[in-house]
Amino acid sequence: VEIHGANGYLPDQFLRDGSNVRKDRYGGSIANRARFALEVTEAVTSVWGPERVGYRISPLNPYNSMKDSNPRETFGFLVRELSAMKLGYLHMVESADTRAADRLAPSFRELFRGALIIN
C-alpha cells in the first residue's frame, strides 16, 4: 500500500507551510503539520503492517501550487518519523530541478532506514 503524501494531496497540504495556515494542533510547527500524515500512516500500518506500506513525498515539486519555506527541515522531520515506523519504502518524486533533488536524496537516504525509490 502506498500512501500518497505528494503533489498537493491532502497529507501534503497539511505538511507544507505554504498551504497549511491552521491555528489548531494540525498547524504551526513542523511536528503539528506532520501530525495528519503520521496519523494516516499509523492507521494504514495498523491494518497492513509497516513492511507492506510505503509513503510517497514530493518535497521540491511545485505541482498544484505546493511550496514550503524549508523543505529540507519539513520533509526531514517527516522522513525521520516515517523511518521510525519501519515502513517498507519511501518514494520520493523529483522536481524539474533535479540538481536540488539530488542534494536532498542522500540526506533522506541517511534518515530513512528502508528502501528509497526516486523517480
Largest sheet: 4 strands, parallel
How are helices and strands ordered from N to C? EHHEHEHE
- How would you write the strand order of the largest sheet? 1-2-3-4
Helix content: 40-55%
Structural class: alpha/beta
By DSSP (H or I, 4+ residues per run), the number of helices equals 4
Give the termini distance in whole angstroms.
Answer: 18 Å
Total beta-strand segments: 4
Q: What gyration radius follows from the Cα positions, in whole Å?
A: 13 Å
Beta-strand content bin: 5-15%
Spatial shape:
globular
Structure report:
The protein contains 4 helices and 4 strands. The chain has helices at residues 10-15, 30-48, 71-84, 98-111; strands at 2-4, 54-57, 89-92, 115-118. Helix 2 (30-48) runs parallel beside helix 3 and helix 3 (71-84) runs parallel beside helix 4 (98-111). It starts with a strand and ends with a strand. The model has no long low-confidence stretch (mean pLDDT 89).
Fill in the keyword field for this structure.
119 residues; alpha/beta; 4-stranded parallel sheet; 4 helices; 4 strands
